[in-house]
Specification:
The chain has 68 residues and is of the alpha+beta class. The chain is 32% helix and 34% strand. It contains 2 helices and 4 strands; from the N terminus they run βαββαβ. It binds copper (II) ion.
Length: 68
């Protein structure tokens, strides 16, 4: 299991937080996603055998946010 912290730009409310969380949790291999609105970041735990950081970034971007 690996953990990564992504800088997520563009979140403005808890709805955004829910959207980013759902997008991350939908990636195969992701076991936990803690999204922090104030810190503008997402701490993600994932199985390296199934998910890559690139997949996580793409999922956040597909949800409409930028990863810095
Ligand atoms: Cu929002």
């Amino acid at each position: 299991m690996d953990e990564i912290v992504l800088k997520v730009e563009g979140m403005s409310c808890q709805g955004c937080v829910k959207g980013v969380t759902a997008a991350l949790m939908a990636v195969p291999g992701v076991t936990d996603a803690q999204v922090d609105l104030a810190a503008a970041q997402a701490r993600v735990r994932f199985d390296q055998a199934q998910a890559t950081p690139e997949m996580l970034i793409q999922a956040v971007e597909a949800a409409g946010f930028d990863v810095g």
